[in-house]
Amino acid sequence: RSFRAKVLTVEGEAVLLDQTYFYPEGGGQEADYGAIGDHEVYDVQRIGLSVLHFVRGDATPLIGKRVHCTIDAERREALMRNHTATHIVLGAARKALGNHVWQAGAHKAADIARLDITHFDALTDAEVAKIEDLANEQVLGHRQVRVKVMARDVAEKKFGFRLYQGGSVPGGELRVVEIPKWDAEACGG
User: Fold this and answer.
1) How far apart are CA 79 and CA 62, in angstroms?
2) Which of 79, 114, 181, 188 has CB 3.0 to 4.6 Å from 27, enough for a Cys bridge?
3) What 3-state DSSP class applies to 149?
4) What digits encode the pLDDT tens for the residues 36-45?
């Protein structure tokens, strides 16, 4: 994945572009890596409404120039797969253990994903196997994943407060990730 963008400003290692397709760290998901010109992008963070790209080396000569930007596509695909997996596993945990299950935390990296859930007891081997079986059924069934931005009141009316598995989401609009008849969550990633 590549695109061209204008470098608006540079502050230390932080580069601000006029537009970006780099995914910043958020929703428990690590940031994209890649390059801006010949500068390696090693982190991307959202600060308020701005997305800052952290690069190695002095990028000040790029200010005001349109530059070629590339995203590490292999990393992005791995992050996306692991992120979707956490949605699938959460739905499987609720179906296997009951509706009291709630997401308590998550981390999505390129090489591993972790989902923390609430439950009144330690999971048995049989419960873990049931969650795994249910999740694998979803993966092997090639289920559709829908992502849409919805007005908060419309999303809450359609999906209820289970949307907030990952915590409160600010603003009047929610980015909703839905696996029909399985799971729906407001999701920053």
Assistant:
1) 29
2) 188
3) strand
4) 999 999 999 9
